[in-house]
Amino acid sequence: MILVTGATGEFGKHAVQQLIKKGVNTSDISVLSRSMEKANNYKEEGITVKIGDYTNYDSLVKSFEGVDKLLFVSSSEIENREVQHENVVKAAKEAGVQHIVYTSFMRNQERDNSAIAFLQDSHLKTENWIKESGIAYTFLQNATYLDMLPIFIGEQVLETGVIMQPAKNGKSSLVLRQELAEAAAVVLTSNGHENKAYPLVNNQAISYNEVAETIAQISGKDITYQSPSPEEYQATLKTYGVPDEYIGLFTAFSVAQANGELEMSDNSLEKLIGRKPTTAKEFLTKVYA
Hints:
By secondary structure, this protein is of the alpha/beta class. It is built from 13 helices and eleven strands. The longest helix is centred in the middle third of the chain and has 17 residues.
């Protein structure tokens, strides 16, 4: 039995689809959801829906009973992530889960002053909790989602003609969320992945300057890239009424990119999915053609 957490989110949905595509019977798949309403479509497909919440330990233990492999999709609630993740690991151990496949985040270097330390620290702690549990594990150290690129550059980029991020000339090894979910499904349905960590990155990293050039070529419009200081960038976003939490998140990722934290070379993803990952230029062509 394979259980997928976060199954009503985009990553979880893709993972379940990929499991079915790889021949796993729906009777051998279960999903974790906070409510039955959100997961009704799974029930209709013959997939068992377990009702549970990362904040409710008892619900997790009950949901994990009889589960052999757990696809543990990391919490999107960054401020509560550590407590929630510790609950998941402890519940998995109590329920007798045999293998945890955890969606972590790429680390190309250990940095005490990382711009995204708030993100890295919770993932590192979770990895350590899983190791200490004695449960077999696979860590999927995912790159930033390529799907997020249009949000980072702004929905009105074709109208404004400007991409503004404090990322300097840094590059990011962005990967499509669907391809990361496919890699997770491969790990769950094949052997030899126990106690391994896979950096899942795109070997063709891209800078915002290259993003601007690509969109300009595709659209025929003049698109330029500006890299202000983090302070100037934050002040500009405030004038547009962007919520503080998003300003902080966008700034952190851009500074991390400027520092070289989001660029990495590794072919683990290509090996798992059996082909080269979709490049940022291919993705941008589909979005802006």
